[in-house]
Amino acid sequence: MQNILETQSILDKHQAERTKCLVYTRVMGYHRPVESFNIGKKGEHKQRQHFTEK
């Protein structure tokens, strides 16, 4: 719990310096920002398994 509070304190302190990060994903052959998804598609995106191919 202490670690979460420390992290939140650091984030709050540097809020003015932060920039928004857009996450894109490939959908049906083209890239789209995840923030434009509807609530159901956002839920599916969070459940995806990420992997690194060797």
Task: Give a structural overview.
With 54 residues, the chain is α+β, with helices and mostly antiparallel strands. The chain has a domain of 29 residues. It is built from two helices and two strands; from the N terminus they run αββα. The mean pLDDT is 88.
**Spans where pLDDT lies below 50 across 5 or more residues:** none
**Spatial separation of the terminal alpha carbons:** 36 Å
Helicity level = 25-40%
Q: The biggest beta sheet, please?
A: 2 strands, antiparallel
Shape verdict? elongated
The tally of beta strands, per DSSP, is 2
Beta-strand content bin: 5-15%
Order of helices and strands: HEEH
Mean pLDDT: 88
- Find the structural class using helix and strand composition: alpha+beta
Short structural summary:
Its EC number is 1.1.98.6. The chain has helices at residues 2-13, 39-47, and strands spanning 24-27, 30-33.
